[in-house]
Amino acid sequence: MALTPVLIIIGIVSFLFFYSYPSIFYNGSNFLTSITWYTGLQGNVVQSHGFSVQSGASFGILVFLVGTLLTSGLALLIALPASFFISISVEFYLPSRIKSILISFIELFAGIPSVVYGFWGVLFLEPILYNYIEPWMSASLGSIPVLGLVFGGQVTSGYGIIISAIILSIMIIPIITSVMTNSLDKAPKEVRESIYSMGATKWEVGRYLLSSFHKSSTWGGAMLGLGRALGETMAVWMVAGGLQGALPSSLYGTINTMAAWIASQLDSAYMDSSGMTISALAELSLILMGVSLIASVIGRRIAGRGALRGYQND
Amino acid sequence: MNRKQTVLAIAIVVIVVVGGYAAYASLTGGSSSGKVQLTETGSSLLYPVFNKWAPDYKNATITTASTGSGTGISQAEAGKVNIGASDAYIQGTVPSGVENIPILISYQYICYNVPGVSTGLNLSANIIAGIYMGTITNWNSSLIQAANPHATLPNHSIVPVHRSDGSGDTFMFTSFLAHGNATWGSKYHFGTSASIFPAVSGELTGAQNTGIINAVNATRYSIGYIAATYQTEINNDHFGIANLENKAGFFVAPTVANVKAAASGYLSSIPSNGSIALQYAPGNNSYPIADMEYVVVQLHQSSTSVANALKDFLTWVLSPSGGSQTKYLSAMNLVALPSNVVASVSQPMINKITG
C-alpha cells in the first residue's frame, strides 16, 4: 500500500515513454528547438526512418515551451509580491478574528475550478484589457525609451500573454500566501520580540521574517505556485488566444502553452492514422510532467515538509 | 478526520454516486426496458441533433456523447461505440469492415466584426485564403474593395480567428480554401487539425464554435468561420455574415436553398463509399462551404439484434418522416440529404450492416 504512489508515477512515466517512443526517434532534438508543429498531410501515411507518419509531418514544441515558461514566470512575478503584501497585512495588521476568516477565504480560493477563472477571464477581464488597459499601456509605457522595447506594440485583442499571466497569478496567489502566512505564524516569539525591541515596525518584522528568517519557506511556496502554473490547462487555454508556428512578437501578442496544446490537439491527433501525432503529444506530456515535477520537487526540498503540508501541486 | 467525519464523508460520496446513477437510469429508461442500447460519440456539431433524436426514437435506447469527430471515428473503428459521428469522412483508406455513411448536410458562415461594415460583404476563397496566409492584412485591401465596390472599408489590420482544437469545422473551412485557392491547396492542404494554419501576425484562436464566437464578438476587425448550427448565438449586432463567391463566380448568401443547390451540384460525383467534400460545388446558386455529416459504423456488430437496431435507427434518421424532419433540423440549420443520395449512397451502406 505504501508503495502505491511510487507505482502510479512509475506507471504513468512508462506509459508515456511507451507512447512517445516513435516521436522521440522521429523528431529527435528538433522536438525542442523547432517552432513548427505540423501533423502532415491528413490520410497520406508514409514510412520514414522506420516509422509510420503522415507525409510532411514535423513536430516542434518550442512555441509551447516558451509560452509555458513565459506565462508562468510572469505570473510568479505578479503573485510573489502580491502574496508578500497580503500575508504580512493579514498576519500583522488585522484583528485575529478577521484574520482567521480571511485565511479560510484565501484557502477557499485555491479550490476554485480553473474553468471558472477562464470564464471570468473571457467575459470580464478580456474586454477591459483590450479596450482600456492594453491600449493605454502601449501608448504611454510603449513610448518611453527602453521600456518601449517591452511595452510597445499593437493591441489587436485582449487575449494572450498579459491576461494569461494575470489569471495564473490569481490562481497561485492563494497557494503562496498560505505558505507565507503559515511561516509568519510559526516564527518563534523571541525572534519577533527581539526585532520589535530594536524599534522595527510591524511591516519591517514581516519583511524580515519572509525574506530572511523564513526565506526557504518563501521560495518553496513560490516554487509550488510555479508548479501549479506550469501545468494549468483550462483557464489558459480559454484566454491565451492561441499561437503556433511563431514566437510571441510583443507583450500584447497571443500565446500557447504545453498543457493547452495537449488538451486542444487530442481530437485531431486521432485523425492521424499513423499514430505519430498521438506519440508527439505523449512526448510533450512527458516533458510537461518533467518540468512541473522539477518545480515541485525543488519547492519541497527548499521549503522543508512542514511548511507545505496540505498543499499538493496539481 | 475523526471516525464520525469519516463515516459522514463516505456517506456523502455514496449518496452522490447512487443518486447520480439513479437519476441517469431514470432518464435513460434504465436497463430493464428490454430495448437494445446503441452508443454514439463524436462530433460536437451533431451532438445536439442526436440529443433530439434519442428521446423521440422509441425502438432503441441511444446514449450520446460530444467528444469530437476524431474521437468518434477512432472509437467506432475500435468497436467501442456503435456510432461514431464525424463532420469529415475518414481520411486516407477507410479500414475494411468500416463505413462512413453520409446522414446530413451542414454548412458554415464566414463572420466578421468590422465597425461600419454591414452584413453581406462579398468575399471569395482567394480573399479568405490571403487573409489566413497573411498576404492580405488590411480590410481596405484592393481585392476586398474590388469585390465590394460600394462598401467603405476601414484602413485597419485584419485579425483572423481559427479553431484551436481539432474540428470538423476546420476541415470544412480548409477544404474550401484548398478547393478555391491554388496556393492554399498546394502549401497547406486541408484537415481537422489547427496545425494546418500558417502563423499570421495578430491571429487569434478559439476553442469550439463558442470560442470563435466570443473572440469575433469581442475583437473588432476580426474574421472567423462558424458552423451554421450556431445561428442563434451569432444573431448579434457585431456580426456580419459574408456572401461567398462560388465556383461559377457568383456571390451567394448562406441559405438552405443555396446549400441544397451545392449538394445537387455534386450529386453525380458522390462515390459509393460516401467520401467526398461538397466544398466549391458547381452551379450558379451553390453555396461553397457545405459538407456532408457522417456516422462511422462497423459493418459487423456484436449480435443480430444490435445490427438490426442500428440499421433501423439509421434508416429512421435518413427518413423525411423520421429523423430528417424539419422539426429536428431547421433550428440547427442542418439540411437533409437529397433523397437520391440517400437511395444511392447511404441506404446501401446501412443495408450492409450485419450481426
Write a concise keyword list for the protein shown above.
heterodimer, A: about 325 residues, mainly alpha, MetI-like fold, 13 helices, 4 strands, about 70% helix, globular, disordered C terminus, B: alpha/beta, D-Maltodextrin-Binding Protein, domain 2, 2 domains, 10-stranded mixed β-sheet, 3-stranded mixed β-sheet, 13 strands
CATH top level assignment of chain A? Mainly Alpha
Residues in helix, % of chain A:
55-70%
How far apart are the first and last residues' alpha carbons of chain B, in Å? 54 Å
- What composes the largest sheet of chain A? 2 strands, antiparallel
> Which series of helices and strands of chain B comes N to C?
HEHEHEEEHHEHHEHEEEEHEHHEH
Tally of contiguous helical segments of chain B: 12
Q: Which oligomeric state applies?
A: heterodimer
